[in-house]
Amino acid sequence: MADNSSLAGRTAVITGASSGIGRAIAVRLAQAGAHVFLAGRSASSLSEAAAAAQAAGGKATPITGDIRDPGQVRALVDQATKDTGRLDIMVNNAGVEFPSSIVDGDPERWRAMLETNVLALLVGSQAAVRAMRACGARGHIVNISSVAGRREASGVYGATKWAVNAIATSLRKELENDTIRVVNIIPGAVATNFARNFPPEFVANILQSLGIKQDFKAGATLPAEVLDRVASAGRQILASADDIARAVLFAVTQPIELNIFEMVVRPQREFALPS
């Protein structure tokens, strides 16, 4: 188990860090002593997440931007490296899902998923490798995938996660002779606002089944206190964001000679999400 100084002096970049899994990862890495750079689109949410990371005992820098723009992804890595002189951990966490059939799907939503889930991860990984090599880091590139990337007929979102898994495997082989390890974390269903683009009736049914009364509209986010209640009431079918964060912390605090390449982190019971 990592102690509160196991990542002292290390620099970590986390995309999609304004809430959910990304925020939880930022807090855990900061608690272990890392200087975390939190990236996301919401300045207010990022500021709150950075405050939580600082309260956990580490340094935190929020950076607002759109990772669908390759230039902004590179600039994010460049800023972290410039500010601290190094990069040790790159967490490609940002992801989006728009469930629909292929027949009725919206190509612009497909583009959003491909650019967020695949292109940004590729650009972030490439920029991280170059930064880690430049400073001689014993580094880790962490990709947050999904069990959807292991299921057949998992839709366009699942296809992006199949791509993530293939990219991670390829990059691991490319870096076997480097002091950079690749980690693929594969969550099952997690109690976060990831379902904000799901059909409202689907989310409403989940909340009702857990005994939680809460209005929900497509594209909206649930308040943090409601998510806490969801995570507590649905513990057997929904993992918590911190479950995923603890897996990340474990992987990045192992000796560099050991590659914890793939970890599936899922709740006690399987829970099928729409695809």
Overview of the structural elements:
This protein has helices at residues 20-31, 43-55, 70-84, 107-135, 155-174, 200-209, 224-233, 241-252, and strands spanning 11-14, 35-40, 59-64, 89-92, 139-144, 180-187, 262-265. The chain has 275 residues and is α/β, with parallel strands linked by helices. It folds into two domains: 11-190 and 239-265, 3-Layer(aba) Sandwich (Rossmann fold), CATH 3.40.50.720; 192-237, no CATH class. Strands 3-2-1-4-5-6-7 form a seven-stranded parallel beta sheet, sandwiched between helices. The longest helix has 29 residues, at 107-135. The mean pLDDT is 90.
Shape: globular
How many helices does DSSP assign?
A: 8
Please give the largest β-sheet. 7 strands, parallel
Q: What average pLDDT do the residues reach? A: 90
Give the helix/strand class. alpha/beta
Please name the defining characteristics of this protein.
275 residues, Rossmann fold, seven-stranded parallel β-sheet, globular
Summarize the structure.
The protein contains 8 helices and 7 strands, in the order βαβαβαβαβαβαααβ. By secondary structure, it is an alpha/beta fold.
Write the layout of secondary structure elements.
Blueprint: E1 11-14, H1 20-31, E2 35-40, H2 43-55, E3 59-64, H3 70-84, E4 89-92, H4 107-135, E5 139-144, H5 155-174, E6 180-187, H6 200-209, H7 224-233, H8 241-252, E7 262-265
Parallel strand pairs: 1-2, 1-4, 2-3, 4-5, 5-6, 6-7
Helix pairs in contact: 1-2, 1-8, 3-4, 4-5
